[in-house]
Amino acid sequence: EEVAFLLIHEHLPNESELTDYKKKLVSLRDIPSAVKSILEQISATAHPMDVLRTGVSALGTVEPERNNPKEIADRLLAALPSMLCYWFHFSHNQKRIDCKTSADSIGGHFLELLHQSKPSQEWETAMHASLILYAEHEFNASTFTARVIAGTLADIYSSISGAIGALSGPKHGGANEVAMEIIARYKSPDEAEADIMRRMAN
């Protein structure tokens, strides 16, 4: 949340600002029923990135941009885990989950919604580390896409939807998925090393 505050509001929060920011994000977690209805139409076989792209676009029609895109950025940070987990539980288990949790972090909220139980501190810490590393990603393909769309004076929802589309590709964010598929090929570290060395040699 400190990193999110820094990127969106342009300074590191002090203790009281951080407390207030966490409370604000908690209050923004639920998603409108119209967006939930759209998420319920998405197949269980859909890619999660496509679900997020659709959820952002749908939210933009229900809560259109008025004046302050920073407020929408906070809204999306709070609501994206809810969108993804609501779709997951409905599409896989026909269960309409409550999108509100008492977790005081985005990572904790996501894990609690996903597993429907409070995560361990170890899991939450790992999730936070991952989110921080992704936040510091500089001028990559998805950032560039968002800036191009914003440069046309399109609304922030369009910019974020387009960025998610770029991020989903196998040569950008989708590379993580490809890496997991590669790891699954190997039965041992020795087999992995031998194959990787052979590929590098080629």
Order of helices and strands: HHHHHHHHHHH
How many beta strands in the DSSP annotation? Answer: 0
Question: Shape from CA axes?
Answer: globular
Number of helices: 11
| Percent of residues in β-strands | under 5%
Q: Which bin fits the share of residues in helices?
A: 55-70%
Mean pLDDT: 94
Runs in which pLDDT lies below 50 for 5 or more consecutive residues are none
Structural class: mainly alpha
Largest sheet: none
Rg, nearest Å: 18 Å
Distance between the termini: 44 Å
What does this molecule look like?
The mean pLDDT is 94. By secondary structure, this protein is an all-alpha fold. It starts with a helix and ends with a helix.
Summarize this entry quickly:
With 202 residues, the chain is mainly alpha-helical. The protein has helices at residues 2-9, 15-27, 33-40, 48-62, 69-93, 106-115, 121-135, 141-151, 156-167, 175-183, 189-201.
Task: Give a topology summary.
Layout: H1 2-9, H2 15-27, H3 33-40, H4 48-62, H5 69-93, H6 106-115, H7 121-135, H8 141-151, H9 156-167, H10 175-183, H11 189-201
Main attributes of the structure:
globular; mainly alpha; 202 residues; 11 helices
